[in-house]
């Protein structure tokens, strides 16, 4: 699979945006939330060298993986009014995608199945040809034999400048197992546009992204010619994949493999002896799972009066909190405690909203 032509140096910079590791890992939780998952399961290997995230969201077809997951830029969070297919307010918007965890593991493995179809549109240059290979229209991520009887071209157009002519099947074109054959004079235009639906409910795919290879590229490398940074294997769903007496439901499993040494050291850190009352004294694995379990993919919209009451309650309990801090941290003195609302997330969201409005209002280049 190829990646858009982005300088490797830029890729390395983007991969360092999410620090520390827990922040990058939470992006996987956010992705599952955007996929309308109701259950997300996190498993840490015994040796802490790999972590798995499994969700029961809508899953991905191989085409969704190629167009949405394994790409840089062009986030689709704005589609459908910025909401997920299930109506949730979507989180993902930066378009960095898989690079969130690139600096923390050597390989990222993705397995997914979806019952939804993939809908796409492709503009094709005819170049005097009387037949267009199907790979040029649908791409080559799925072998054509897996799509037999599952392709529907619901709109086809012959384009000549601003003029568009609707083509009809089988008068103007015919679709066979390997190509679209152009059958009429009006289909012989310079450009053709096909809108189609691909049924992928019978497919399951496994993908592996090689981060060590991708981040180790020299600046002069042309990523448009690289085919081996991501390997995708598409196969048919078999009875072995289905639960006994049931059907295979949509899912996505993401595995971070060969975690970097500094991540493994953080996860395998032993607990501090004799100090078990606070999470900061627990083992690295316990701290990681504690932070993941308490992560919220969306901010809480708390009414102003509730926020004021919360601050007042904390100030009322400040004496008790100070005594607990003295005991747990073994301090001789504790400074006065002052409680304020953390508005940093709201500030970030406001800045991003303003930038989006500025981009929308910016006039197009002539």
Question: How would you describe this protein?
Answer:
The chain has a six-stranded antiparallel sheet with strand order 1-2-13-3-11-12. β6 and β7 form a beta hairpin. The chain starts with 7 loop residues before the first helix and ends in a 5-residue tail after the last helix. The chain folds into three domains: 171 residues, 2-Layer Sandwich (Heat Shock Protein 90), CATH 3.30.565.10; 81 residues, no CATH class; 58 residues, no CATH class. The protein contains eleven helices and 13 strands. The chain has 366 residues and is α+β, with helices and mostly antiparallel strands.
State the end-to-end distance: 34 Å
Number of helices: 11
Q: Main beta sheet, described?
A: 6 strands, antiparallel
What is the fourth-level CATH superfamily of the largest domain?
Histidine kinase-like ATPase, C-terminal domain
Residue windows where pLDDT falls under 50 for at least 5 positions: none
The whole-number mean of residue pLDDT values reads 81
Q: Which architecture of the largest domain per CATH?
A: 2-Layer Sandwich
H and E string = HHEEHHEEEHEEEEEEHEEHHHHH
When the domains are counted, the total is 3
Total strands: the figure is 13
Shape: elongated
Amount of beta strand: 15-25%
CATH level 1 name of the largest domain: Alpha Beta
Return Rg in Å.
26 Å
**Class by helix and strand content?**
alpha+beta
Helix coverage percent of residues?
25-40%
Q: Strand sequence of the main sheet, in spatial order? A: 1-2-13-3-11-12
What CATH calls the topology of the largest domain is Heat Shock Protein 90
